[in-house]
Structures are given as structure tokens and as C-alpha cells.
Amino acid sequence: MHYKTIIHEKKGQVCYITLNRPQLGNAINTQMTRELADVCRTINQDEEISVVILKGAGGAFSSGSEPQECEAGCDASRAIASLERVAIAAIDGDALGEGLELALACDIRIATERARFCLPHTAYGLIPGGGGTQRLPRLVGKGKALEMVLTAEPFDAQEAFRIGLVSKVVSPEELLQEAEEWAKRIITCGPIALRYAKEAVNKGLDLTLEQGLRLEADLYFLIQTTEDRMEGIRAFLEKRPPQFKGE
Predict the structure, then answer these.
(1) Number of CB atoms found within 10 A of residue 171's CB
(2) What is the DSSP string of 84-113?
(3) What are 124-129's contacts with CB under 8 Å, separation 24+?
(4) In the chain, N or C: fewer CB atoms in 10 Å?
(5) In order of start, what are the domains of the chain with their CATH numbers?
(6) How many CB atoms lie within 10 A of CB 141?
(7) Residue 180 to residue 14: CA distance in whole angstroms
(8) Could you give the CA distance from residue 105 to residue 88 in angstroms, rounded to a whole number?
């Protein structure tokens, strides 16, 4: 599929997705949603990829959906949430509305000092529909999430870091390098272990503690049967870095 609104680039075990409508603040429309869904399916089928870095072209991450296209923005978040690989959002400039929901659908968020965040939906008589009311309180707590959703007021990168929405704040020049440093650390881990750990955390949030512990135990015992687990043991005994194959 030829992409017109995103750029897809693979470098070894890292895949880059760039929202590429800089003249419109990388606003999400139906075409971008279709392209994100397609590229996420492609990534999930590529066993070599361990980490995805999602970023925006120009001076914004994403300003949200185009007018009358809120549903497209919601579907875009679902596409990113469907990624089975670790997803890092590299946020520069605005992450507003459905743009912020895209970032919330990622596993890790890194922002620049000039990043700006907002879920403005209630100011327009709407509510967030791309996961904002669900993912945000799971990250920052119920009280802070309600404050952000009900007031519809923007907040800056330092506030996002303080409440745990982003993991680190850097200069715009350092953003991509910082995201790549996180990716380098992650890809040293076993790819199957990364997928199972992500599944355990994400699905466990929707379960009782007892159910979540059973899910964790099932995945733990399942991973014991993999070649990667045996390689991890051999590497530990031989005092060398493991060479995981995702098997």
C-alpha cells in the first residue's frame, strides 16, 4: 500500500511511523486512519520488529482530528493500540484531542519541552472517544484525569512529566535520539518476553487481581517452553549477552 499521510521506515528491529501532514498539524483524517491500520497489521506480521517509534512531521505530534472526522481519530488510536510490539510516542509540539489519544495508545511517551497536551472535547459538547477517558486515568489516576477531561484545558510537558503521562522531557533536538536510546535498551530483551509482558500488563488492568495473577502465571509457564528462555539461561551461565531469536 502506498502511504500518502504517513511515512513508514524500518531500521533493523525498530520501525518508525511518522504522521506526515505537517501543513495541517498532522491532523487525523480517514485516509490516515486507514494507513495506520494497514501499517500496524504489517508490523504485527514482521517478527524482526521489536519496537515502534511514533512521531509527527514538522512542529506537531498531532493536533487531533479534522472537523467532522472524530470517528477517524478514534479508529486511529485503536490501530496503534493493536500493535503487539512496544510502541514509543516521541511527542514534539501539540498532542491535542485525538492526537493525545494516539500517544496514550502507546506504551511509553517521551516529550519535548515545547510539547502541549489537551483533551478539549467537553468544550465542544463531546467526550473523548479514542480511549482518552479510559487510558488517561489508568496512567495518571482518576482525579487528575477528571480534571483534565472536564476542564478541557491544555497543560505543558513539565506537568505531563509530573503526573506520569510522559516518562521524560528533552529538548526538540534530543527527542529522536532519546526515543532511539529507549528502543536500544528494549530490543536487548527477549522479543517473546516483551510481547507477553505487554499482554500481561494491558489485559491484567481489565481483570481482578486473582484473574490477572492467573494470566501472568499462564504466560510465565508458556514462555518456559521457548528457545529464547533456554538461551537466556545459557547466556547467564556463560556470562555473555543473550542472542534471542524470537523462538
Answers:
(1) 11
(2) SSEEEEEE-SEEETHHHHHHHTSSEEEEET
(3) 126/70, 128/97, 128/101, 129/70, 129/71, 129/73, 129/74
(4) N
(5) 6-187 (3.90.226.10), 191-238 (1.10.12.10)
(6) 13
(7) 8
(8) 9
pLDDT at 2: 85
pLDDT along the chain (247 residues), means of 10: 92 96 95 96 94 96 86 87 96 96 97 97 93 94 96 96 97 97 93 91 92 92 84 74 76
**Are residues 152 and 110 in contact, defined by beta-carbon separation less than 8 angstroms?**
no
Could you tell me how far CA 137 lies from the centroid of its own chain? 16
Confidence at residue 37, expressed as pLDDT on a 0 to 100 scale: 96
Torsion of CA 114, 93, 79, 49, to 10 degrees: -70
Residue among 73, 70, 68, 69 nearest 19 (CA): 73
pLDDT of residue 229: 82
